[in-house]
């Protein structure tokens, strides 16, 4: 099982970035994103249900972030708009299959002026 995360980088406040997570080796039920800011605990950002395309987000990103499915199988995008300095964190892709969680490598997102 492999999770390939990409798309991190730097942006100014109010800017946008798009992350992608490509899962291979299994068909996950859910693909999600978590993040960890310096000195803080890991926080769930959002998740995408593969079967019905339902999405859920943490309150702090609602209306700014959006998850969508790419054409490639088991690939999900996290579109991040109106970025804020508090969005700065290492973002991790997660895939859930039955009772097992799989994790990709982290990708850094830095929001600063």
Characterize this entry briefly:
The protein has 113 residues and is an all-beta fold. The protein contains no helices and 11 strands.
Bulk shape: globular
Alpha-carbon distance between the two ends: 38 Å
Order of helices and strands: EEEEEEEEEEE
Give me the count of strands. 11
Q: Count of helical segments?
A: 0
The proportion of residues forming helix, as a percent range, comes to under 10%
Class derived from helix and strand content: mainly beta
The major pleated sheet works out as: 7 strands, mixed
Mean pLDDT: 96
Radius of gyration: 13 Å
Q: How would you describe the oligomerization state of the chains in this entry?
A: single chain
Beta-strand share of residues:
over 45%
Low-confidence stretches: none
């Amino acid at each position: 099982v492999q999770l390939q995360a990409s798309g991190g980088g730097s942006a100014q406040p109010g800017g946008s970035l798009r992350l992608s997570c490509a899962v291979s080796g299994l068909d996950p039920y859910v693909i999600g994103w978590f993040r960890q800011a310096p000195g803080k605990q890991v926080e769930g950002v959002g998740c995408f249900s593969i079967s019905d395309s339902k999405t859920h987000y943490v309150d702090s990103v609602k209306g700014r972030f959006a998850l969508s499915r790419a054409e490639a199988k088991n690939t999900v995008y996290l579109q991040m708009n109106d970025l804020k300095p508090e969005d700065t964190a290492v973002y991790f892709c997660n895939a859930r299959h039955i009772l097992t969680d799989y994790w990709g490598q982290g990708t850094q997102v830095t929001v600063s002026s």
